């Protein structure tokens, strides 16, 4: 047996006992702290994500309890859409009007500003777009297409027995409304767009967290672990940014149920919508001349969320029977800032030559 000197250790093999070489013992000693550090970091990250996941689920349940569905559910292919109806059902003096909300929200935004006013003498039908508010997203990421959302809304209207109607869309909802006007021209009596997204823009113009959320695997992990805690820091600033230079209405976040956006599935749906939007409107631009219904576009000159020059003005120039109302000093939410003007536009909808009105 080989004698081992003091201070040495041995390793055993089928061929006897030998002293380890320097090359074999140094990595084992030096790598131990690295392994321990990596394990610690892994466990710390797992603990943080786990805590974020638990917080997300608890907060989502609390949000849903605070903001339950206020309308009814209409079945469409693969799921249901949430619909709220206001006004004198069965006793309408005018054609019904369908309202389609924009990004990062739900039907309550348009309900707050326009619902009761418009419902005085007509049936008002408000939709949660697929994947938003309380509506399902039966097609998953495929439902990010405004054309697909328009088709689902039309399917719901068919089931509700609604034949002809006036259509109003705000912001991203304007892309859905214009897609519906192109696909179902015989069903529309008129089109109103508020600060609409209609044309492609330079750059991405999507916040970094929406870029992450729109990724197939990472996005869902991010949504179910990080977004809700992060939103506590971002939500109020985001709302203020959309309304500027005006202030948001008092208690807007609660009254418009904006926190429904913070649920993981709606976060992902919203990000997918934004990621798909630019390519969609780019493909749709050449067809705007086909829109034949009377159209009114209301936008604010101070809107730095959706450029009124790039979108509203160009859209008005492309649509034969369009009228553009440019509100001086108003931002991205004209239905809140100038409600009377928007209501008047709906009531006075008629075919007129393209022109710009500054008020």
Give a written overview of the molecule:
The chain has one domain: Alpha/Beta hydrolase fold, catalytic domain (Rossmann fold), CATH 3.40.50. Helix content is 45%, strand content 15%. The chain is built from twelve helices and eleven strands. The strands form two sheets. Strands 3-4-6-5-7-8-9-10-11 form a nine-stranded mixed beta sheet, sandwiched between helices. It has a two-stranded antiparallel sheet with strand order 1-2. A hairpin with a 2-residue loop joins strand 3 and strand 4 (79-86). Helix 2 (108-118) packs across helix 12, helix 3 packs across helix 4 (172-183) and helix 6 (218-225) packs across helix 9 (264-284). The longest helix has 45 residues, at 22-66. Residues 1-25 and 351-356 have low confidence and may be disordered.
Distance between the termini: 102 Å
Encode the helix/strand succession as letters: EEHEEEHEHEHEHHHHHEHEHHE
Sheet with most strands: 9 strands, mixed
CATH class call: Alpha Beta
Count of helical stretches: 12
Strand content: 15-25%
CATH topology type: Rossmann fold
Name the strands of the widest sheet in spatial order. Answer: 3-4-6-5-7-8-9-10-11
Structural class: alpha/beta
The total domain count is 1
Low-confidence stretches: 1-25, 351-356
Average pLDDT number: 86
Judging from the principal axes of the Cα atoms, what is the shape? globular
Query: Could you estimate the helical fraction of the residues in percent?
Result: 40-55%
The value of Rg in angstroms is: 28 Å
Tell me which CATH architecture applies here.
3-Layer(aba) Sandwich
Number of β-strand runs: 11
Assign the CATH superfamily: Alpha/Beta hydrolase fold, catalytic domain
């Amino acid at each position: 047996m080989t004698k081992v000197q003091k201070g040495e250790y041995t390793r055993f093999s089928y061929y006897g006992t030998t002293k380890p070489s320097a090359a074999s013992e140094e990595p084992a000693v030096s790598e131990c702290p690295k392994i321990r550090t990596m394990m610690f970091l892994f466990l710390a990250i797992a603990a943080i994500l786990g805590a974020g996941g638990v917080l997300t689920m608890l907060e989502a349940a609390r949000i849903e309890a605070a903001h339950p569905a206020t309308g009814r559910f209409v079945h469409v292919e693969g799921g249901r859409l949430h619909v709220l109806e206001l006004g004198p059902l069965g006793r309408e003096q005018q054609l019904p009007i369908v309202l389609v909300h924009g990004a990062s929200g739900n039907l309550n935004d348009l309900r707050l500003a326009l619902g009761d006013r418009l419902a005085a003498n007509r049936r008002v039908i408000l939709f949660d777009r697929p994947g938003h508010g309380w509506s399902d997203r039966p097609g998953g990421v495929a439902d990010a297409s405004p054309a697909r959302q328009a088709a689902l809304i039309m399917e719901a209207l068919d089931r509700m027995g609604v034949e002809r109607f006036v259509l109003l869309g705000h912001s991203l909802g304007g892309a859905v409304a214009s897609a519906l006007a192109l696909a179902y021209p015989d069903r529309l009596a008129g089109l109103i767009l508020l600060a609409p997204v209609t044309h492609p823009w330079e750059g991405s113009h999507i916040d970094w967290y929406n870029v992450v959320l729109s990724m197939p695997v990472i996005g869902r992990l991010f949504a179910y672990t990080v977004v809700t805690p992060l939103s506590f820091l971002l939500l109020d600033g985001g709302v203020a940014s959309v309304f500027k230079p005006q202030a948001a209405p008092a208690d807007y976040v609660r009254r418009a149920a904006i926190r429904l956006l913070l649920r993981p599935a709606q976060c992902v749906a919203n990000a997918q919508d934004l990621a798909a939007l630019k390519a969609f409107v780019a493909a749709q631009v050449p067809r705007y001349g086909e829109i034949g219904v009377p159209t009114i576009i209301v936008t604010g000159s101070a809107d730095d969320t959706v450029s009124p020059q790039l979108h509203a003005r160009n859209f008005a120039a492309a649509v034969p029977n369009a009228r553009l109302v440019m509100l001086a000093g108003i931002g991205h939410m004209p239905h809140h800032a100038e409600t009377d003007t928007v209501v008047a536009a709906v009531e006075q909808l008629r075919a007129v030559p393209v022109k710009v009105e500054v008020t």
